Please model this.
Amino acid sequence: MKNQINSVQAYEKIRPFVLETPLINSLEISDICQTDVFLKCEHLQYTGSFKLRGATNKILSLSESQKKEGVISASTGNHGQGIALAAGKLNVPAVIYTPSDASPVKLKAIKKLGASVKQVQGGCGEAEDTARKIAEEQGITYISPYNDPDIIAGQGTIGVELSRQLPELDAVFISVGGGGLISGIGNYLKQFNPKIKIIGCWPENSAVMYESLKAGLIIEAPEKPTISDGTAGPVEFGSITFPICANVINQQVLLTETEIKKAMRLLAESDRFIVEGAAGVALAGLLKLKDAFKHQKVAVVLCGRNILFEKYLEIMNQV
Model:
């Protein structure tokens, strides 16, 4: 699979369409953790999420006839926004299927970017199943949020940037849902430097890939509501992200909702960053494991900022 996932090639393809996001040394968080903490600011990416990278790489890989027919995908919001923006720039029709509980702010953004939105009764799994079925019936390209080499390679361009911005990186903390983000970054960084530690971070309320890795195969796992809606949902059976995650992740950590919320608040206090729950998961992972990473150079991927402002304020008042 590594040979199919070329993040360097993807980086060259998507450069005209995405931002190279800054890597910022957070002095306050570094002091708290007694290590050099660098924040990879994907929440400052166009659409407010890393998802634009994979979406752009995938759409650029399509033939002209495929682009003309359009694309169908499923998303809780961020992937849908990435598809919508990339498709709009390349004049490709796009339809996004979303779960019934998808964030209103994310749905509004998808529509503003020009894609059609169709809500499905049920959760992420039902939205993905419906989108895949409709795409197959209509003969239109279905774009998985994570189970696709082009998507993974696009997300891996973050790893390409990290390797250039901080060559002496010791470890990187990454939130995990379907595994596309950590597969892409980990796949590239392990080739750049096998000694870099890849730390997978999950909300304990929704840790399907975590439980699957623990079981040795993709399984269904019980889920509860989580502030990290960007990582919630099942993992598609047969997903290519599973073996990559098993190969590149060095350490795994589960976080409580309170730990995630406290990390979100710390980012606001220390660096004045508003982030969504999935980004809070990655920082919460470092805060929980900080004693093991003292005096090292550590990156935390802040994967997105798309959270309803009222909900964000409510969280800030809770912790």
Observations:
- The beta strands are 23-25, 36-41, 71-74, 94-99, 116-120, 141-143, 171-175, 197-203, 251-255, 297-302.
- The mean pLDDT is 95.
- Residues 2-49+150-316 form a domain with the Rossmann fold fold (CATH 3.40.50.1100).
- The longest helix spans residues 124-138.
